Backbone:
């Protein structure tokens, strides 16, 4: 499996609230990520991290024929206390999101405690 850590020559924005133009400038300095592997495992700490963190990479890899599997470490249940149905809702949302990206497989759930 190829592991690529993108590097940029632009300094990472230090401000807590960064405007879109600054992010656009920073992103311009990143090289494109190209994976030669036909099998990719995406490990996400919480449901939705895979989509927000590398949804574009997942979709592009699937379009070029890769078999992508998403493994989620926790159910994300600790993110909003008091919502008992949150873990099951986040599972459903994640399954729909990865399917929309083109994944043919259901996400794997590692069932580690959140928090």
Residues:
């Amino acid at each position: 499996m190829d592991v690529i850590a993108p590097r940029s020559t632009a300094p990472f924005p230090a401000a807590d609230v960064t405007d879109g133009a600054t992010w656009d400038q920073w992103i311009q300095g990143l090289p494109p990520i190209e994976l030669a592997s036909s099998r990719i495992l995406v490990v996400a700490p919480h449901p939705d991290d895979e989509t927000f963190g590398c949804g574009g990479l997942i979709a592009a890899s699937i379009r070029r024929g890769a078999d992508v599997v998403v493994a989620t470490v926790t159910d994300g249940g600790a993110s909003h206390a008091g919502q008992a149905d949150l873990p099951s809702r986040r599972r459903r949302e994640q399954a729909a999101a990865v399917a929309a990206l083109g994944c043919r497989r259901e996400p794997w759930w590692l069932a580690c405690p959140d928090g």
In short: The radius of gyration is 16 Å. The chain has a mean pLDDT of 84.
